[in-house]
Write a structure and sequence with these properties.
This protein has 138 residues and is an all-alpha fold. The chain has helices spanning 10-20, 24-58.
């Protein structure tokens, strides 16, 4: 029967049995190294989190975004990734790069032109009347 003490897990029993065969000074050294590794990992994690927050606040590009679950494949390309453009400019669409082949912009009118406005000689003749209902067939 148990004496009311909690049972140790299998992992802790294996760990204690491995350390039990070693001399006391080795046991203390191993335990101190484990504690030091845990404390160092906490320190590094906190240092990275502080650096990340400072970079976000100051508006600098954050290269550690992938570490916090918001990275993309391009974040891992390093020097092979695409060069960053000026952050002031908005990224244009494909039509912005047409140059001389882009359609000429007309003076802005009250209405946006429709497809029928580009029919030219093939457009049906306009009837005189009061608005769009005048073109409806009677």
């Amino acid at each position: 029967m148990s004496a009311g003490l909690p049972q140790a897990s299998v992992k802790s029993q294996i760990f204690e049995s491995l350390l039990g065969f070693l001399p006391d000074w080795v046991q203390i050294t191993v335990l101190a190294l484990i504690v030091l590794a845990v404390v160092a990992s906490w320190g590094v994690k906190i240092k990275r989190k502080i650096a990340y927050r400072r970079a976000v606040r100051s508006g600098q590009p954050v290269h550690a975004a992938a570490q916090y679950g918001q990275g993309r494949g391009a974040d891992y390309l390093g020097q092979y990734g695409p060069q960053q453009t000026q952050p002031d400019r908005q990224q244009g669409s494909g039509a912005d790069h047409l140059g001389a082949y882009a359609p000429q912009r007309q003076a802005e009118s009250a209405q946006q032109p429709s497809g029928a406005d580009f029919l030219g000689a093939y457009a049906p003749p306009q009837r005189q009347g009061d608005g769009p209902s005048a073109n409806a067939s009677a």
